[in-house]
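Most newcomers find our protein records easier to grasp once they have seen one. Nothing more is needed to start thinking about how sequence determines fold. Here is such a record, shown just as it appears in the course material:
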Amino acid sequence: MANITSDPASPAPAASAPKVHRSIQNQAIQNYIGEAETFITTVKTDAEINPVMDLHGYDAAELATADALLQTAAAAFGVRLAASEGRPRNMKN
């Protein structure tokens, strides 16, 4: 009786996006959060920019929402970093 469960010709693995080392991803996320914080702070405090942004719908309430979302993103990023600290440094992701 023939063995029907054997697979003599396995298909080639599917093409996937190139792997990015976690440290590069972490730096990009950290930069993005920092730039967003700078932008929100500038819009809130700059006497020339704030009125212009207010005309475009970025009033105090909208900026408070943006600030809350930024704080949530920063907290989530902190959790990501804490979770990855236990991994060996040379481990490919």
